[in-house]
Amino acid sequence: MRTKTILLSAAALVAGILSSQAQSNVYSVNIVGYVNVNLQTGYTMMANQMDVDNTGTNNTVLTVYGTNLPSGSAVYAFSGGAFGPNATYTTKGGWAGGVAAANAALNPGGGVFVKVPSPKTVTLVGNVMLGTRSTPYANGYNIVGSQIPQGGLLQTDLGYVPTSGDAVYQFDSTNQVYFPSRTYTTKGGWSVQPAPAVAEAFWLKSAAVSGGTWTRSFTNQ
């Protein structure tokens, strides 16, 4: 999966309001961005790193992908330790697979498997989440990604705090296989520290008995 991101397409949106009595500027603190993701034929693990309405809570498979996927695509969401029904997209019929599939939660920091029938560049657009935000994860397997459209070393750059026994599994969309797992122990650190790319989701197998949260802080400066 190759990605390109532009975060600051509108770092501060300025609108001039002119009238016979006053002239003022209205500023928005939002960051509107987009990410181009080059999907290969077959499966790709994708993270949502944009928000639809600045709440961080109302994003779904439908709002994230809209009509951007090619006809015959499918999206597989994982929740509660299992995959739900897949949401499929056809240009003639739109989204299918049931309301629950298309409306499956896909908030920033969440991830899904996307299957496309042919190579396609998909553009994801939305607000970059500001402030301190946390992505919850459960004990065991989770599909997660960075809440911020940023790639880098999972702990060093992206702020994930590991628990001894954690394992990360990244998917190679070019060859349609998993890379070797990356594991963490308090004595030895990471076997190899994972480095997810922009818009890349991955499996996190958490060893924390009660799960935990992956917290990120990002400000518009």
Please give a structural write-up.
The structure is a single chain. The chain has helices at 61-65, 99-102; strands at 2-10, 13-18, 23-28, 32-39, 42-47, 73-79, 82-83, 87-90, 94-96, 111-116, 120-127, 131-137, 140-144, 167-169, 171-172, 177-178, 182-185, 189-190, 202-206, 212-218. The chain has 2 helices and 20 strands. The strands form 6 sheets. Strands 5, 6, 7, 8, 9 and 10 form a 6-stranded antiparallel beta sheet that branches.
* Strand content range: over 45%
Q: What's the main sheet like?
A: 6 strands, antiparallel
Radius of gyration: 19 Å
Q: Mean pLDDT, as a whole number?
A: 86
Low-confidence stretches: 4-24
Report the end-to-end length measured between terminal Cα atoms. Answer: 30 Å
Indicate the structural class.
mainly beta
How many β-strand runs?
20
Q: What form results from the Cα inertia axes?
A: globular
- DSSP helix fraction: under 10%
Counting structural domains, the number is: 2
Number of helices: 2
Topology as H/E string?
A: EEEEEHEEEEHEEEEEEEEEEE
